[in-house]
């Protein structure tokens, strides 16, 4: 149990670092597209989130496989990275759907919310909600598909 708690804490630190990378890129790209290209909030947020997510996946892979998960002996690094990316693509889909829902359904249709917060804060809020959901998905799926089961059972 202690090993799992330590692992969750390490995953949290890696997640915070990855989130900062993701969030900064998401906000910079979406703000740039809204202000510089006149793009709508939803489109700009989705494009920004895509770029932020892609860069953060690479950062997350490097840190997760070095500090959080014990590598499986039966997977070469190429297969491991492919599995990591495939799981992350599903996470990206969840991420984008949550952002789309938060902005196109909640933010756009609740006049009081629209009057209360601007597009930047709406994008930030949507990104935070999406990140929380995807973080749980990422930990569970990576633990199932990438963790070395042998060392997990030996540690108990």
TrEMBL record:
Ranges of residues in domain GtrA/DPMS transmembrane: 10-145
Tree of life domain: Bacteria
Segments traversing the membrane: 12-33, 45-69, 81-107, 113-140
InterPro entries: GtrA_CellWall_Glycosyl (IPR051401), GtrA_DPMS_TM (IPR007267)
Keywords: Membrane, Transmembrane, Transmembrane helix
Location(s), subcellular: Membrane
Membrane topology annotation: Multi-pass membrane protein
Pfam families for this protein: GtrA_DPMS_TM (PF04138)
Family: Belongs to the GtrA family.
Name this polypeptide is given: GtrA family protein
């Amino acid at each position: 149990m202690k090993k799992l708690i330590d692992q969750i804490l390490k995953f949290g630190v890696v997640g915070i670092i990855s989130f900062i990378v993701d969030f900064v890129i998401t906000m910079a790209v979406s703000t740039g597209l809204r202000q510089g290209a006149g793009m709508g909030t939803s489109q700009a947020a989705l494009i920004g989130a895509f770029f932020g997510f892609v860069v953060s996946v690479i950062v997350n892979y490097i840190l997760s496989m070095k500090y959080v998960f014990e590598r499986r002996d039966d997977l070469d690094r190429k297969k491991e990275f492919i599995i990591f990316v495939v799981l992350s693509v599903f996470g990206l889909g969840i991420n984008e759907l949550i952002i789309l829902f938060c902005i196109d359904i909640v933010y756009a249709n609740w006049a009081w919310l629209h009057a209360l917060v601007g597009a930047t804060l709406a994008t930030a809020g949507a990104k935070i909600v999406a990140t929380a959901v995807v973080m749980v998905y990422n930990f569970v799926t990576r633990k199932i598909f990438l963790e070395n089961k042998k060392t997990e059972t030996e540690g108990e």
